[in-house]
Amino acid sequence: MSPRALKPLPPAATDPARIRNFCIIAHIDHGKSTLADRMLQITGVVSDRDMRAQYLDRMDIERERGITIKSQAVRMPWQVAGDTFALNMIDTPGHVDFTYEVSRSLAACEGAILLVDAAQGIEAQTLANLYLALENDLEIIPVLNKIDLPAADPDKYARELAQLIGGDPDDVLRVSGKTGMGVEELLDRVVERIPAPVGVKDAPARAMIFDSVYDSYRGVVTYVRMVDGQLNPRERIQMMSTRATHDILEIGVSSPEPSPSKGLGVGEVGYLITGVKDVRQSKVGDTVTSAAKPATQALPGYTDPLPMVFSGIYPIDGSDYPDLREALDKLKLSDAALQYEPETSVALGFGFRCGFLGLLHLEIITERLRREFDLDLITTAPSVPYQVTTEDKKTVTVTNPSEYPTGAKIAEVLEPIVNASILAPKDYVGAIMELCQQRRGTMKSMDYLGEDRVELKYTLPLGEIVFDFFDQLKSKTQGYASLDYEPAGEAPGDLVKVDILLQGETVDAFSAIVHKDKAYAYGTMMATRLRELIPRQQFEVPIQAAIGARIIARENIRAMRKDVLAKCYGGDITRKRKLLEKQKEGKKRMKMVGRVEVPQEAFIAALSGDVEAKKDKK
């Protein structure tokens, strides 16, 4: 704790001129949470006794993986030249799948600390987050972290950073989140450079909801950034989009634990608790105003994020369906980017088709559903949305292979395209270009950011990168490459739907939309996999992969044979032949009327092993 730190500020409305709102933006694993830990210690809001690594990461899954998933706001006191300032800091995620969290945090701030690892330099997500901050007209403070590492080269990366954002390499601050070196100078720079929030004190209250979480005891906890006016305890408030009104039961600031206050004024960041249990009544991006003296114009909200990857989530036990619906409602509150709607599958029963921002997002949501709500789930293979136009000019949006039009001639299939930016050392350019060409990529540009770092820009089909593209990229570049991508519209693709048939019947859960060149590989992979997973029946079962009416791959599950001759010892051969003929007739009849029940474990194994199997094929 620094001698310039104070006891936490008295929880009351503070003079806007003494408030600084800022966030920390960086690529994943560049030390945001560690730097935030040192700030909490140096400003004295967390005592050394209570301190733990990744203090602001509240979820077990965040701490286990060492990544930030949820943005966290915290208020810290800091003294400069005898004046006390309130620093409202938001620690943001670094992974591309959680860019929506970052964009909401940026809208609640006036400045951003751009953090770069002094041993790794600028990465793809660093650039993406920097451009987001510049779009929001934020004051950028460039900082090099991890300068205590033996591999650190601060002079080289300070020149890179200064070249990127304009300025002098000497202006780039050098800190160590681990040891605390340079953190006090950084806090001084925040006070000096980041502008104070601007708002009208006497205007009707307007506050932007930038985040919310669900507390099982207290209901919805809403995090707001005050823009105009003031909100006080016990005041009646109104949500401007839904017109719903509530009483404020508690209002306060996070420091970093919730501290009730006497109200929130212009520029302050804090939380509201209204006792609302319905999660749909507290929408991220909504404007909160006073019910007695409401504002006439809402604040500009956030653009809704577009799901990039779709997957079906089904409970293994059908009776858990209502619990799954309630769990998704609660998760939607703390993760506004999650989208879902009910769907049914012949094979899997009732479930939900969910939209995610990427594969990590999908993985985190399913893991949270299992841990926090104790649900056993099956997730279908991820897919992306396609626009399918038939020859009679009907256009269908397909997020699930079962929605793909059948029985009609397909005129055109549009698939989503992304602009991908890959940063890597120049030695790996050849391997990256080869991988992108395999995935139907088109190169747009290649720029050298320094002596040995290259930025490659490609246009790629989203369906080609949502599975294992990032893993392949990392393995081909020994972990040095970084990837960022953003939607770039749609383009026509030579795509087909591959169906998997058991005993001549389509199993919708195993269908997939793939590029024509990869259809055979997918069909043989799924047929081989199912032959190993489905138990043998009393009759032979054909497993077929088909495009429309054309079979492209086939495997057979051999029939189990009962030894009908066991009771025949000795005697005439005609007796044995008669028994064998009878068995043959029975098998034939059974094959005509028999149904193949796919056990639950086979579904789980076939669907969860889908990605790995694709890797094996490649």
From TrEMBL:
It comes from the Bacteria. Its main location: membrane. It is a peripheral membrane protein. It is found in: Cell membrane. The keyword Transport does not apply. Signal peptide: none annotated. It is an enzyme of class 3 (hydrolase). The keyword Signal does not apply. Belongs to the TRAFAC class translation factor GTPase superfamily. Classic translation factor GTPase family. LepA subfamily. Required for accurate and efficient protein synthesis under certain stress conditions. May act as a fidelity factor of the translation reaction, by catalyzing a one-codon backward translocation of tRNAs on improperly translocated ribosomes. Back-translocation proceeds from a post-translocation (POST) complex to a pre-translocation (PRE) complex, thus giving elongation factor G a second chance to translocate the tRNAs correctly. Binds to ribosomes in a GTP-dependent manner. This is Elongation factor 4.
